[in-house]
What does this fold into?
Amino acid sequence: MTLLVTGAAGFIGANFVLDWLASSQEPIINLDKLTYAGNLETLSSLQGDARHVFVQGDIGDTELVNRLLAEHQPRAVLNFAAESHVDRSIYGPGDFIETNIVGTFRLLEAVRGYWGTLPVGAVSDREQAPSRSETAPTRNDFRFLHVSTDEVYGSLAKDDPAFSETHRYEPNSPYSASKAASDHLVRAWHHTYGLPVLTTNCSNNYGPYHFPEKLIPLMIVNALAGKPLPVYGDGMQIRDWLYVKDHCSAIRRVLEAGRLGETYNVGGWNEKPNIEIVKTVCALLDELRPRADGQPYAQQISYVTDRPGHDRRYAIDAHKLEAELSWKPAETFETGIRKTVQWYLANPQWVSNVQSGAYRDWVNKQYA
Ligand code: NAD
Ligand code: DAU
It folds into this structure.
């Protein structure tokens, strides 16, 4: 059996591949466009490992996706590929529409075509499909798992209960609107065509290999470089943080046992205001890599103009995933953030490599 995983040179996808292949012999075909956010260095430990097949390409390239599906006959397609950064979606929404909406549509259509060619029945009925190899999946076993975000639900007031799966969709940024559209397409392909889909909506991830444009890695990297730590607005916006490996274990669990057509919220019950996150990162750096002048890193905090349309609060109710699929995060915020800071301290070369080239050009253009 094989998995086709899209966007797996990015932050969460690459962590998923590394975790998967640490405990499974099942190969992964990794289809990634290698935008500024995709980085094969993250997967360098898999060089020469036949279980990881990397293909550079676009999820919207129907011919390529059709060929990969026919050639590798995956039992599941996991769609991580997306433009993922809210600030970028504000400056330039076009790529978000193209990949997150049009790309997901094209991927769904290619997968629907492939799924229709699979023999009906379960693996146990394989003798009904004598022309198929022993390892080919059947239509009943196949899954399309779409990785999405809590941002589709919009912004919560201070006292509102956390987002459940039945919360209405109220996306506020071009990014979240594009993800909401993709979720709706996935839902419709199940409802209309019967495609066996699963959707996960996760809160903010953090951990190793996180691109240093997102809050936590940006704060670590800027602090160490002696640069300002930009906190948007009053810094009291709340996000709900989950260690990336826990997101990966949740996806694995949903793939194994999720009910078809269902969505599962994934979160770590870690609601925190941004300023608290930044101060925690500063305190860990004070402990693990004190500034040469002995001053606290928190001195570098700088309040800057708020993000337009900034959502005030996200919070995930993960009861469904916990009760139905017995999933639990392994890390608390305290253990996860310490591991994360330690990882960045140990991997300055990865940071400087991903910050070179396309990313630096983009930042220079936006903020010149
Ligand atoms: P990322 O930006 O780090 O990685 C995205 C990857 O997708 C990159 O490797 C990029 O090259 C690839 N890609 C982009 N466009 C593509 C295309 N057209 N075809 C093929 N590959 C393409 O993103 P991430 O943080 O790893 O997020 C992965 C998924 O999880 C996204 O769908 C995102 O919406 C979702 N998500 C992220 C978070 C988070 O906190 N990071 C939380 C919830 C959900
Ligand atoms: O909630 C899940 C989402 O989390 C994912 O779907 C997105 O792909 C992912 O990027 C993330 O979106 P956010 O916008 O919440 O993440 P970001 O790290 O950009 O920002 C986190 C919070 O920190 C947010 O309230 C904005 C604030 N922020 C961010 C940056 C980069 C700052 O105050 N300063 C900054 O420099």
Residues 84-86, 149-151, 203-204, 214-215, 218, 230-232, 237, 239, 274, 307, 314 surround DAU (ligand 2) (CB under 6 Å).
